[in-house]
Amino acid sequence: MRMIGAASLVAVCGMLIGAPALADTVPPFKGNDTGGIIAYPLARETDARQLAVNHCASYGKVAKFLAVEPHYGGYVSFACRWVPYGARELPLRTRY
């Protein structure tokens, strides 16, 4: 019985050592109809406000920025809200 336990322990340890540890990759811009996040390095290179406005306008909503984490690995987060009362037109998408 001890030999089976020892053999299984060696097999499990061998599998753990041989398997590479991979982290999931996260895209620099990710969102859905309720909002999204923009990676801080991307926000420094491009116009993060325009990315969020275009994303939310594709759902017929307006963008509201929630938070900014200004460090490496940080994100700019935003929420997509319905068009405010009193607005007569839908949000515009900018096309360059």
Can you lay out the helices and strands and say which pair or pack?
Elements: H1 2-18, E1 29-32, E2 35-39, H2 40-45, H3 48-57, E3 61-68, E4 75-82
Antiparallel strand pairs: 1-2, 2-4, 3-4
Describe this structure in words.
This protein has three helices and four strands. By secondary structure, it is of the alpha+beta class. It has one domain. A four-stranded antiparallel beta sheet has the order 1-2-4-3. A hairpin with a 6-residue loop joins strand 3 and strand 4. The longest helix has 17 residues. The chain is elongated, with a radius of gyration of 23 Å. The N and C termini lie far apart (72 Å). The mean pLDDT is 81.
Rounded to an integer in angstroms, the radius of gyration calculated over CA atoms is: 23 Å
Provide the residue-averaged pLDDT.
81
> Secondary-structure element order, as H and E?
HEEHHEE
| Poorly predicted tracts of residues | none
- How many distinct folded domains? 1
Global shape: elongated
Report the end-to-end length measured between terminal Cα atoms.
72 Å
Strand order of the largest sheet: 1-2-4-3
What would you call the structural class?
A: alpha+beta
Q: What's the main sheet like?
A: 4 strands, antiparallel
Strand content: 25-35%
Strand segment tally: 4
Q: What's the tally of helices?
A: 3
Helix content: 25-40%
